[in-house]
Amino acid sequence: MAWVGFIIFVVVVLAVDLGVLNRKAHVVSIREALTFTAGLAVLALGFNALVYVMYENHWLGLGNHVDKLDGMRNDGRLAAVKFFTGYIIEISLSADNVFVMAMIFQYLRVPPQYQHRVLFWGILGALIMRGTMILLGATLIARYHWILYLFGAFLVFTAIRMLVQKDTGEDVGDSAVIRWVRRFFPVTPTYHGQQFAILQDGRRVLTPLAVALVLVETTDLVFAVDSIPAIFAITTDPFIVFTSNVFAILGLRSLYFALAGAMEKFRYLKVSLAAILGLVGVKMLVADLLKEYIGPSFNFYLLGMVALILVIGALASVVAARREAGNDRGVLTD
Question: Is residue 330 in a domain?
């Protein structure tokens, strides 16, 4: 019943987004994006309070099962900390996704007024994909506990790869996905309003907007490979995993419009994300030791460390940008 109620809530949010706030195609302003982002953040905090109440009182059977990760039953406080930690981590990992989506829109020259439509349907597909992956992951972990260690090792490997891998600047146009779409489906050279496909000479033809949607969906699938194991490093409770992930995905669209134009200023973004992935990976590998030496509050400490990494990364980016701007002014005066 809790799952049904939450899915109904998500449907209502999506309906308000597409049917009320963005019924007509328009360029989403930064102010509008920030307002929607803030609104979703408030909803997430409100839902976190509801998580506390439901797990504390074991409503609808929530909190009655042992969490495979730490071997504890999730009471209200523990469930709320795990939900919020998962939400923050997923929002953080979504920031890199924003940068890639900006590259996709720039390469395909998607008109700003149509970008919201691509992101809306992309996020809807992402919800379905991630929901399926989470349920599959939870089922596997319930049967094979050793998968948690595999996830942890994968996250540590991903963190190291993110640190050492250089940005090749590969053109989005060289993507195998684009080549595959153009090989098997005819694509019009120009946009046709908000249409993903049109009838041309009696046959269905895709528009570049459909190509953008396929790329966005593919990108989210790639990023989900990192983010799904990351959330399982916090808890194996399917309801907490799913709801925290969904709230992060719901805010991805507005996060894009709020941050896409300023992503180049966050030069230490990858370093921060790598540190977070490494942290949660190590935590997954040594969860039993953390529980023994730190106690049940080690999830709360993890939340604090994730927040600290994000703050340090943001401050370092701001300082570096100001120093670079100062150096540029010095060169100009010379």
Answer: no
108-115 CB contacts, 8 Å cutoff, 24+ apart: 108/172, 108/208, 108/211, 108/212, 108/215, 109/208, 110/191, 110/208, 110/209, 110/212, 111/191, 112/27, 112/28, 113/25, 113/26, 113/27, 114/25, 114/191, 114/193, 114/194, 114/209, 115/28, 115/256, 115/257
CA distance 142 to 137: 9
What's the pLDDT at 48? 96
Could you tell me if residue 245 is inside a domain?
A: yes
Residue numbers of the domain that contains 7: 2-323
**80 token code pair:** 């709320």
Count of C-beta atoms within a 10 Å radius of residue 307 = 13
Give the total number of structural domains in the chain. Answer: 1
Fill in the DSSP letter of residue 185.
S
Distance between CA atoms of residues 106 and 289, nearest Å:
47
* Structure-token pair, residue 23: 């019924």
Which has more confidence, 289 or 20? 289
Residues 6+ away with beta carbon under 8 Å from 306: 85, 88, 89, 92, 276, 279, 280
pLDDT for res 172: 59
Task: For residue 329, tell me if it sits in a domain.
Answer: no
User: Does 332 fall in a domain?
Assistant: no
Alpha-carbon distances, residue 77 vs 45, 49, 53, 314 (angstroms) = 14, 10, 9, 29
* Sign for the pseudo-dihedral over CA of 289, 295, 301, 303: positive
Amino acid 41: pLDDT: 92
Give the list of residues 6+ apart from residue 127 with CB closer than 8 angstroms, or none. Answer: 10, 246, 249
Regarding pTM above 0.85, the answer is no
Interatomic CA distance for residues 78 and 248, integer angstroms: 20
DSSP letter (8 states) at residue 205: E
